[in-house]
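hi! just following up on the protien thing from before. the input was this:
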Amino acid sequence: MNKYELAVVVSAKLEDDDRTATIEKVKEMITKHGGTITNVDEWGKRRLAYEVRKMKEAFYYFIQFDGEPTVPIEVESRIRLNENVVRYLCVRQDEK
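and the predicted 3d structure came back as:
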């Protein structure tokens, strides 16, 4: 199993309940495809480096998980369809 970190940027236009539901869906995708979530870090509302979809701010979440190499591929293919997610990036963490 490899260690991964998924950065998810969620629209600031959403209500708290919708934002929480969006992150829960992402976590469900990870566990559904065989991943094990080890940590979820919520950074809160931050200014974006550049304007995306006429938004200057968004909520940042970082989800660390363990999984096979197929898990990030499956998660990314489904997270891409979620309109509440502004940006995302999944990277493999180096072994220490």
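The helical segments are 16-32, 70-79.
DSSP finds two helices and four strands in the chain.
cheers
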